[in-house]
Amino acid sequence: MIGTYLNGPYVIVKFLTDQENVPKDMGLFGTAMAVGTLLGPIIAGFFADRGSLALAVNITAILPFVGAILILIAMPKMAGNTSIKFDGLAAAIMPIAVILFVFIFDRLPELGWTNPIILVGLLALILLFGWLFYYENRKHKRGETPLIPVHLFKDKNFTALILVGIACFCYLTPLLSYSSTAAYELLNANSQIVGLFPLPRTILTILLPVAVGAWAGKKQSNLWKSILMATVTMTIAFIPLMFLSTSSSVLLFFFTFAMCGISEPFRAVSITPAAQQNLSSEELAAGTALINFGNSLSSVISASFATYLYGISNNPATGFRLVFTMLTVIAFAGIIITLFINPKKQHA
Description:
By secondary structure, this protein is mostly helical. The chain has helices at residues 2-16, 22-49, 53-74, 88-111, 116-141, 156-169, 172-187, 191-195, 199-207, 209-218, 220-238, 251-268, 271-276, 284-311, 316-339.
């Protein structure tokens, strides 16, 4: 349900506005989500402090319901394609593959790479995804509409954009988890200071997306520059934490969160619009979902590898440095991939 709600606007906006306005409108979505992330806990806390715990919990269901009604009222009627048949088999297999994927990488830090459960699970996962890709590719070749447009991976630009999106998004869970732990264990920071770490990122993801989106939509080359800016600022964000020690300052974490807050708007307004320009109208929904799906899974994978890297060292400082070095290397790989994207292929 959440996945549908988050993915829908990024597809629908293509049909509701001109191409040059897509990055700006996606920036508006990013700002709205950031504001919701900020206000949600405040509103829930307001009701909880006044004894309305049920309302504090149910507000998370009430507000989306109100939003859904507003969408039904405002959304223009659009003609559908009745010739498209639902891919029931892939729809049944895909959740199984995703559950298995998440289970493996969730248990991996605890069980280790050599555990029989992990090995059997990885083999089953490879076979399952291999069959799914083969089945969906055959459907496409027969002129049918697959649930997962795996044929899109033949487009080097589209594949590169998915990889860049993963490189720019996989930092989130490890940063939120290990920044606070590192501040407590290495720097003896108090809880009030640690609680403020995400604040620069939150503020910047509220203020910047619309302006960045408007700039990115002015010229086609700005879209590619925005992708490059996202990867460069993400790399810069984690370089200082590669040298984290007991003598470091907590300001390093504020710097990293601030740089991530700059990178996020550039990523949000550029990668999805650029990827959508490689898609036909029939592929738009599934292709956009594929981008968001890669972003979501990247956070799970990076968190698992971060736990593994932290665990192989007996020294906490070394463990934290390994985690942040991993994020730096991934972000830098995003820069390299971006340089191979052909901006001219991103046609309006």
